[in-house]
Amino acid sequence: MTVPGSTTGGPVLLRGGAVLGADGDPVRADVLVADAVIRALGPDLDAPVDAPVDAHVIDCDGRLVLPGFVDAHSHAGSLVFDEGVQLALLRQGVTTIVTGQDGVGPAPGDGSYADTYFAAIDGPHPSYRGGGVHGLLATYDGTTPINVATLVPAGTVRHQVMGDDPGPADSAQLAAMRELVRDGLADGAVGLATGLDYVPGLFADTAELTALCTEVAAVDGLYVSHMRGGYEGNARAGLDEIAAIVRGSGVRAHVSHLHAPVDLAVTALAALEAEGAPMSFDAYPYSRGCTILSMLLLPTALARPGTEDLAHAIADDGGRAAVRAAVLDRVLSRADLGTGWAEQITLSHVPAAEFHALQGRTLADAAEATGTDPVDLALDVLVDSALQVTAVMRVPRPRTADDLAPLFRLPGHTAGSDGIFVGTHPHPRAYGTFARYLQDFARTGLLTWREASRHLSTTAVERLGLGRRGTVAVGAVADLVVVDPDRLAARSSYDEPMRPAEGIDDVLVAGVPVLVDGGLTHATPGAGLRRRPGRIDHEQGAAGTGGR
Which parts of this chain are annotated as the region Disordered (predicted)? Predict the structure, then answer.
């Protein structure tokens, strides 16, 4: 699809829609966009007299014009070049993603660590082979319709310096890690991310994390943490550790995919704010989770990426029996699994050809179909797939929209999909989080449209320092989505997880239409969003295409 003005950044007039007024109610207003920003708002605007005859006009009658949504926890950074992923994001209204999550990402280094350990979550980056955060962000300039910001992944930093050494960092190693964090922030990263259930992030103690966060605090970046030890049964301990890091470093903090009992989460976050450690967090409107199967099942010593430790450990009957016992001890002790664990784990991505057909089946069902035991099947699947297996997990106490609304109303909440696009049976959150949020919360009145717009866009922009976006106002970067409240629907489900959302058919990034009538325009105005001291760089990048 070719759209007038789509590659030149020419004027675009969004005509006949509504924006949210000062009181939050929809107000009829046209929106005039030119040179990447909103130039005018008001009724019955005309295109500028000097606009080219093919200036683009989008009929927005009956629809809302909202700021582009920010996926505050995305795993699409290496896959955002794929048109299927682009369409899945844009059909939900996502115009910016934040990557480097859970402490793992391509930079620093040459990308090989992330490609090995998180291949089943992030997928391999098609072009990054080094150059740090600067080199990574450059891969997004003018190559995609989506903006990409990144965090410095602390697990990757530790791996660069210490490999998978489980010991504490000595002074020289800590100094080297701090230097890598400083370099990443100077190159434009918006903060630091940890994954404290993943190797080697789980080996970092609170003192190490506090030292790294001192570098983040020095530039007013954000510390983003997948908390230590799980969420359902250990959320308070994880939040307490983050609070200790905040007090020790002065950093601002954010909790990744907060998935805890709502009453506990609300109470704990309020208590921490009262203590002077206010936190933001991202959360998605689904009960089930998704992660790599090795983290769920294996003892840490066997879950190291890029090794054959597991294959060696189960090579004889005695070794297999010992590993089986360790797996059972692990799953039966988890508050989010426990008895019946094999029925609660669905295989999402299994690259091994022999087991590929098991994607979409629970471990219990797959074991019965193959005439084996769930533990033995899981071990064989992991070995044959070099540990690159993801799984969707049910939880014992699913939460309804009414249950989640108090959590989503908290001022620190941002929307983050934690979406994984790898595999043939991914979690539906990758294709439906933002549409489901609007469908189940804004359209039903559990949240106002203003609250929804703030949580899906503005709060993340402010917390992460993503520049002059996140509002529909004159002078703001024209990342905009046009929402039809009546048609809005998340169509992805656990049975059919890859169905795109409906109700958002027109999206602009930097004033350029990237989705029109529900289809990609193939324009690529997206950019690597680079942090500068105290702000995000809004100017065009070195290639003339990005860096806003």
Answer: 522-548
Other CB atoms within a 10 A radius of the CB of residue 379 amount to 23
CA 290, CA 392: separation in Å to the nearest integer? Answer: 4
Per-residue pLDDT reduced to its tens digit, 388-401: 999 999 877 777 88
Whether the pLDDT of residue 53 is over 60: the answer is no
Q: What six digits make up the tokens of 436? A: 């489901």
- How far is the CA of 343 from the CAs of 310, 346, 389, 392, in angstroms? 23, 8, 17, 11
- Give the residue, 233 or 255, on which the prediction is more confident: 255
Q: Is 393 helix (H, G, I), strand (E, B) or coil?
A: strand
Which tokens sit at 110?
A: 């040459």
pLDDT tens, residue by residue, 187-241: 999 999 999 999 999 999 999 999 999 999 999 999 999 998 766 667 788 888 9
The ranges assigned to domains in the chain are 67-287+397-536, 297-388
Residue where the block lists tokens 């002074």: 171
CATH of domain 67-287+397-536: 3.20.20.140
Which of 455, 532, 482, 417 is CA-nearest to residue 56? 482
Beta strands (DSSP E) in 1-154 are 12-15, 18-20, 26-28, 30-34, 37-42, 56-59, 64-67, 69-71, 94-99, 147-150, 152-153
489 DSSP assignment: B
Strands (E), 126-179: 147-150, 152-153
Burial state string for 144-157 with b = 16 or more CB within 10 A and e = fewer than 16 = bbbbbbbbbbbbbb
**pTM of this structure:** 0.93
Amino acid at 316: D
| Residue 348 near residue 390 (C-beta atoms within 8 A) | yes
Q: What is the mean pLDDT of the chain?
A: 90
Q: Which amino acid is at 201?
A: G
DSSP 8-state code for residue 68: P
Q: What is the pLDDT of residues 313-358, one digit of tens each?
A: 999 999 999 999 999 988 887 766 666 889 999 999 999 999 999 9
Separation of alpha carbons 261 and 240, rounded Å: 16
DSSP 330-355: HHHH-TTS-TTHHHHEEEEE---GGG
